[in-house]
Each structure stands twice: as C-alpha cells, then as structure tokens.
Specification:
Elements lengths: L7 H8 L1 H14 L16 E5 L2 E4 L4 E4 L2 H4 L8 H13 L9 H12 L5 E5 L2 H16 L3 E5 L44 E4 L4 H11 L3 E6 L10 H13 L3 E5 L10 H6 L5 E5 L9 E5 L1 H4 L21 H13 L2 H25 L4 E5 L2 E5 L8 H5 L3 H14 L1 E2 L7 E2 L6 H19 L1
Parallel strand pairs: 3-13, 5-6, 5-7, 7-8, 8-9
Antiparallel strand pairs: 1-2, 2-3, 4-10, 9-10, 11-12, 12-14
Helix pairs in contact: 1-14, 4-11, 5-11, 7-8, 12-15, 14-15
The structure holds pyridoxal-5'-phosphate (PLP).
The site of pyridoxal-5'-phosphate has 14 residues, from helix 6.
Length: 442
Amino acid sequence: MTEQVISVEDEYRQRTPHSAEAFQRGRPVTAGPAKGAYFFQPYPLTMAKARGCMLEDVDGHRYVDFANHHSTQILGHNHPKVMEAVRAQLDQGIALGAPTGIETDMAAEMCGRVATLDRVRFVNSGTEATLHALRLARGFSRKSRIAKFEGGYHGSHDAVEVSVFPPLDRAGPMEAPHSVPGAGGMSPHAAGEVLVLPYNDEAAVARLIEEHARDLACVMFDPKAGMLPVRPEFARAVREITRKHGLLLIFDEIVGFRAGRGGLQAEFGIDPDLTCFGKIVGGGFPVGAFGGRADLMDLLDPSRGPTGFAQSGSFSANPMTMAAGLATLRELTPSAFDHLNGLADRLTAGLNDLFARRGVQAQAIHTGSVFSIYFVEGKLETYRDLARADRAMSHQVFLALLKEGYFLSHTLSMCALSLPMEVRHIKGLVAAMERALDRVLG
Ligand SMILES: Cc1ncc(COP(=O)(O)O)c(C=O)c1O
C-alpha cells in the first residue's frame, strides 16, 4: 500500500489540536487572534510555558525559540537575574503613582551606553516612542511633514504607517516612491504628510530631501536591522544630508539596539538627534523609550516652566518594566554581545552554505543577533527586493520547522537569538532547515 503524503499544513493541524481549540475559543472574543502579529495560517500556536531558549505549546511540543517574542527576549525566558529583579520589585509594589528611583537608574544606564543620549523618557511601546519623538521634532522645527523610508516600520500610528508594505503596483518609481497609506481608517491627510525615501540610494535621498527640505521636520530612519542590509555608509550619508539641510534625524533602534552596547548607531558611526528604543529595553515587559539631545528633550521638562510640550502616560516608566529592563541591560556585557553576534554569523553562514549546496534560491542575513531568511535571488538593497521574496515558501518552511522543533518568526523575517543559545542550537537549526527543505520541496 502506498503511504499517503499529507501537506505540511495538514500535518500541523494533526499535531496541534489544542492550539486549534484555543484559537477557536478566542476568535469570537478577540477578533481572531489576540493581535495581528500572532496570526499565521491555519491558526497560531498557543504556548503554555517558556524557559531559557525553549518554548512549550499547549499540545506538549517543545521548540527552540528563534522568535524570542518579536526579538524582545534577548536573555531568553525567565533569566534568573530578571526574575530576581521582578520579584524584588513585586514585593515593593507594582504601580505606586510616583517615581521610585528605578527609572533614574534605568535612564542613567541607557545614557551611559548610548553616546547621543543626553536624556531619555520611557513609554509603553515602540509605537508610543516614535509618536512622541516625532511630535517633539515637529514642535521644535515648527514644520509638519516628515520623511521616512519605503518599507520602514515605526509602529502603528498615522504619521508613520505609510509605505510600510506598499503593493508594488502602487509604489511608484523606485527613486521617488509614492506615499501609500498602510491601514484602513487612517487620516486621509496622513500619506500627504510623508515623503517616502528609498533605502541604500544616497543620490535619490539627497535629491528628494533637497527638493522638500523646506517643509520637512525630520527624517525617521528605521535601519531594518536584521531584515535588510542597510550599508553603514548609506546611514552616514543620511546623517550628512539631514545635517546639511538642518533637519532632525530620528533613528529607530527598537530592533537595532540588539547590535551592541552603544546600539546600531555606534556600529554605523552616526549621531542622530533623537533615538527611539523598545523591545529588549523592557526585559520582556511592554516598553518604549525615546531620547537624545538635551535641548530637544528639555522641552518636555515641566520643572523648567511651561514649554508648550507634554509627555506622560499612566504606565510610562512603570517600576516593573524598569526593574526587568535594568536587569536585562546589566547582563548585556560586551562578551554577551560577542556571543550572540558570533552565533548569528555562524547561523547565517551555515544557512547560506546549505542553500548554495542544495541550489535553493534563498538567503539568510543578520544584523547583530537578529536574522531573516528570504526565498529570493539577487541583491537585497531596497524594500522592493524583499517584496519579491516567495512568502508562500517561507510559510511552508516555517510550518515544517515547527515539526522539527524550531519556532521562528512566521514570516522567517526578524527572527532572533537569545543568550542561552549555544553552537548546538545553531547547528540544530541548520540541520532542521535541510530536513524542512526536503519536506517542502519533496
Ligand atoms: C523598527 C520598529 N520600530 C517600531 C516598532 C513598534 O514597536 P511596538 O510594537 O512596541 O509598538 C517595531 C515593532 O516591531 C519595530 O520593529
């Protein structure tokens, strides 16, 4: 009798009945998944617990976690130092309605690490961080338009949710991209407020900014860390062009801060006026932060008298997040970064060797300890190069890797390593990828 070959998706369904049930239970009350980013077809896994670099789902399957909660869990799960700090803070109180001093320690730690941070304010998400940084830039410059890069993501608010994933048939010319709103219900004025720039094209950026500088408050720069190889010389050129035209540069380190102690800006050799942070800075708790030049940040300081600016938030700088974040940063020593970044080098080299050996049109890239795998040939320089990648293939491989015991970001983009990982986890993922390719390509 011939064995019936079932699809990768059917196999996923067979192995995960409790996840299916959990999704069906939540669907009517949470509008499908509890948040958009959790969803993949046919339904997301529901996880039961995590420890170190391992996750366990509600059907009892264990996975090496190469997603790390959208890259946030740089120390892995339940790191003893983070648990200790969180428990100590729990004992002192969760939300005290007043500063407790731990936010000062956290701010001092960040300003000590990042050369361009004179002052920093904490909020609850990267979205909030970019919102406040932008507001500061607009208020300071008294201009309202902003420039951002095609494919750059800065969270979910109207000012920046423009040309994040524009369909290629609406994206316009490569060297002067159209401004395409990214979500239903956005203000009809949002797209018009944004000048869209192409990545890795100094000449186009110089020309577009020169043409529009009079109306621009700032350039928002997502370096797409681990997702697109943005050249350091290009980043330096953007800094020079903004300086030449007197525009503020806001650098989004929300993912890039994984690269090293001083952030990706130190690796690139740039000095932005304002920087946004998030993800790892909260030690697993909701967080965002923005900061930079003293003269800009002091506009938010009510102790200096009325400035016309304001920033607050019920849970901004809350002590639980500050405790977890501070404990996390203190573990991120130069040798911790060397370990993480060295493993990422090894992983992408191993995957690229495998793709070459098997003749698969795919490439793995990384920045620091964030990596992405794209099923696409040729150069990766702009959003449009990424948009050509075979997403159906990524999805099949993602599901096949689950069967192998590896949990990656379901798009295989913005995956991340964690400190407890060792060479065996890297070799394990490369070997699992080979089996996943065998399964998917037949
Ligand atoms: C580069 C970048 N900026 C901003 C954000 C938004 O952060 P949050 O999801 O915390 O609002 C993200 C989230 O993935 C991001 O990757």
